[in-house]
Fold each of these.
Amino acid sequence: MFDLAGRQAYIASLTAARALIYERTGKSSKTHKGVKSVMHQMVREGLPIDRALLVALEYGFELKNTADYGDSESISVAEADRARQLAQQFITRVEELVGTSA
């Protein structure tokens, strides 16, 4: 059950990142690697987002991979909750940034 929560937190963060990328560049990134690369490039170019918030993508991706390919029962409630909190912080910041780019 906690594997699903961790996986969904990642999907929410990934979707928010894709929306921000599209909003700012007009381009879409389809893979995790592509999203990660573009997000880091945008931060280097001055996107006002704390790099620490990008942890939501990495941590969530790890949980997603565990849920999909590993021992999904090894994901604890604490890990799933951390993924949820990171995703919530990341999404909140993305919403702020998208709101200011209009």
Note: The domain at 2-95 is CATH 1.20.120.330 (Four Helix Bundle (Hemerythrin (Met), subunit A)).
Amino acid sequence: MYGLQIDRHAHIMRTEVRVHYDLNAARRPVNLSLNEDLVRKLRKVTDNLSAQVERLLSAYLAEEEAKRLDAEARLARAVEGWNAFGERVGSFADEHSTL
């Protein structure tokens, strides 16, 4: 799947976008409450509002999944760092344990 991205010079270029959902899944009607004026103006610039909403939601999903993966990677690096520190210098509690 491809998406459009605008660079700093306002040139449009094609970039590959990973799809994070099944493109072949059945379509399902849903109810959304949207600003009436916004919808009226959108109808002037697109004849397929559903496709535009789906594209925007797909981009949002990809962004949120990337954030989650980044947070997981940061956490894993912090745990690795803490474990390495503990192996190198030991635990402060070990010096004061009565067990």
Note: The first strand starts at residue 2 and ends at 6.
Amino acid sequence: MTHRLALGRTAYDRGMATIEPSIFTRIISREIPADIVFEDDRLIAIKDINPQAPVHLLVIPKTQAYRNVAELALAEPELLAAMISVSQSLAEEHADGDFRLVFNSGDAAGQTVFHVHAHVLAGGLEESSLV
């Protein structure tokens, strides 16, 4: 099912159906190995291969339909809520429950994989640090 965004077309409409699968889609399909820490029918969570904090996990929807968190929030807010809930559970499991949740949206913001995902960062983070 394709969702229409309030401000435009879905990623599917923009041609994502004809592009190569993202690295996350390839991890989900087990073409690329990853250290999986959580999985259900809608989400997968993995350890980041280049951690920026003592705990650095990625929570990823299994759909490649959304490039960033704004698209996801407009189209499927319940999936975004599930991502946040899983992030909290993972922070409780892998740290003390306190965590920073980061969504990079766009090249200039540091997004390198255009398949929406959340960075769960935990463990000794200072308020003044960006990561």
Note: The longest strand covers residues 55-61.
